[in-house]
Amino acid sequence: MGAPILHPVAMRPTNPAADPAPGRAPLAPGVSVPASALEFNFVASGGPGGQNVNKVATKAELRVRLADLGLPGPVAARLAVLAGRRLTDAGEIVISSDGHRSQSRNREECLVRLRELIVRAQVRPKVRRKTKPSRGSVERRLESKKRRGGIKRDRGGAGED
Fold it and tell me: What is the pTM assigned to this prediction?
């Protein structure tokens, strides 16, 4: 048997039979989109780097429409909030990466960032339930306040006689 196949998004061995339908890109557990929904643009990267930066377009920019992800309503709403300024008025999430010297590594970095956003959006926030302090804890708190106030009151001088 050969070496395991490493999936670029998950960065872990995968079973080719467990992949979604052909032509679909898996992004997160239970989320896959048609490969055509992921739009990549490559532009010249800024910063130092000599001739490589000047002649090779290595900065990757990923655009994917929020509607194309096929997420349930609450998850899509949380993803829109998490995306923040990366969400355009047209409903596209734009993720860019220029940390590596090659297009392919920057492309994979964009996919990893998108995956992390989707996974975070899939986590349902914990519902906060109001709690009321117990009667005993209220009484203990008030008693300690009275005790502390008495200590401060006793610090006073002898008064005017």
Answer: 0.60
